[in-house]
Design goal:
CATH superfamily: Luciferase-like domain
Helix content: 40-55%
Order of helices and strands: EHEHEEHEHHEHEHEHHHEHEH
CATH class: Alpha Beta
Largest sheet: 8 strands, parallel, barrel
Number of helices: 12
Shape: globular
Length: about 350
């Protein structure tokens, strides 16, 4: 199966390392992906998490776009309720002006954090739910298109620089809500399988069945985002996967911290309940050798009719992480780039 492959990056901070090194790892990963033929490198927005350095996607987008030549760079995503639509429009128009035709704007409606941190970001209790998301998205589109109604208070405001288009907008989601909205608005759609795997097939079907063409997306464009831990053998992959399983276990219990090494996870005195949860959490991830992952991933790709696969790989060792991505590029028959394609 030949299919475009992309990266979803939360910039994990390994235990014993630093945020600075984690960010440098993301830059190194992007340089690798750029020449390996990956389509996109997206950065998530998370806050108040000790194990994740990706708090400000637009900063990393600018850095990564500067360090690469071919790959598209974007947000996976900007959590719109945390930001003013005007500021998002300005930031991403500026990125588009700096790196034309290489920027993606992925938008989400979750807070990307706990509710107290969301309050610190959004400043008022009234803004803590996602009920205003359609209005906020509408404002973002109006700033992009200059389409505020004559009576709207923002009609005299322009998002500068205004001589470039806003990059293509992708809605991120883990349910049918975003799939329906992105279809009706003619946007791209990226489904987070690692958050809600059971909803992947129906959500992707809703998107295709209700898609309305737009200038940016004349036909449906659906990304399947999955968590993958791959290695040369199933045993090695299972060992590497202990890090992400334990990270998800801590998230469930409201804790955070650096990404533990497999050796550290093995040394922890986990309760029988925690061990059971670790086993259940493994089902969220595709773990194994390429041959093992193929047996589970390819049927899902066919059932969702995904146009592209975006992979999140939270692996403690940076070289093992790159190797996992390399194995998946081989599995999806992605050809390395032999000459730089700029512009």
């Amino acid at each position: 199966m030949s299919l475009p492959i992309s990266i979803l990056d939360v910039t994990p901070v390994p235990s014993g390392s630093t945020s600075t090194q984690a960010l440098r790892n993301s830059v190194d990963l992007a340089r690798f992906a750029d020449q390996r033929g990956f389509t996109r490198h997206w950065f998530a927005e998370h806050h108040n998490s000790g194990g994740i350095a990706s708090t400000t996607p637009e900063i990393m987008i600018a850095q990564i776009a500067h360090e690469t030549h071919n790959i598209r760079v974007g947000s996976g995503g900007v959590m719109l309720p945390n930001h003013s639509p005007l500021k998002v429009a300005e930031s991403f128009r500026m990125l588009e002006a700096l790196y034309p035709n290489r920027i993606d704007l992925g938008i989400g409606r979750a807070p990307g954090t706990d509710m107290m941190t969301a309050l610190a970001l959004r400043r008022t209790q009234e803004n803590l739910n996602a009920d205003n998301f359609p209005q906020e998205l509408g404002e973002l589109l109006a700033f992009a298109n200059g389409a505020f109604p004559a009576e709207h208070p923002f009609r005299t405001i322009t998002a500068y620089p205004n001589d470039v288009q806003l990059p293509p907008i992708w809605l991120l989601g883990s349910s049918g809500y975003s799939s329906q909205m992105s279809a009706e608005l003619g946007m791209g759609f990226a489904f987070a399988h690692h958050i809600n795997g059971g909803a992947a097939i129906p959500a992707m079907k809703v998107y295709r069945d209700h898609f309305e063409p737009s200038a940016a997306f004349p036909k449906p464009s659906a990304i399947l985002a999955v968590s993958v831990i791959s290695a040369d053998t199933d045993e090695e992959a299972a060992d590497l996967a202990l890090s992400v399983q334990y990270a998800f276990l801590r998230i469930q219990s409201g804790r955070s911290g650096p990404l533990a090494s497999p050796t550290e996870v093995k040394s922890y005195a986990l309760s029988p309940y925690e061990m059971s949860q670790m086993g259940a959490l493994r089902e969220r991830h595709f773990v194994g050798s390429p041959a093992t992952i193929k047996k589970r991933l390819f049927p899902l790709i066919e059932q969702t009719q995904a146009d592209e696969v975006m992979i999140l790989s939270m692996i403690y060792d940076h070289e093992a992480r790159k190797h996992s991505y390399d194995l998946m590029a081989d599995l999806l028959e992605v050809q390395p780039i032999t000459a730089e394609v700029t512009g």
